[in-house]
Amino acid sequence: MPTQPSKTLETFDNPAPAMDYTIRIEIPEFTCLCPKTGQPDFATIYIDYVPDERCLELKALKLYIWSFREEGAFHEKVTNDMLADFIAACQPRFMRVTGRFNVRGGIYTSITAEHRKEGWQPPQPVTLP
Hints:
The protein is an alpha+beta fold. Helix content is about 20%, strand content about 40%.
């Protein structure tokens, strides 16, 4: 049976839960539909996060992203919906989702949505001599 799009996000145990480290994911082939015209919208989705106990599984993420292909969605809504779904799935310490949408009507749009787990502060940068 061929693979199908899915809204189910799978996770796996963080292999280094005591560490603050950043996972960066770039998805250059995101598509959804303009809710006004029904025409396709194209974007690159960027996900940066500091995992806590769970990490997003990439194959499930690919199928999740694919699930938007036939949906009408404003850029702002789809970006914030993704963040909410990712938070629900893996409860990260920090997460940022950015959608950089291709030109539509002569206008480029970038939407950034962020989450910080209550009480979590990023480590201070180290200055080396």
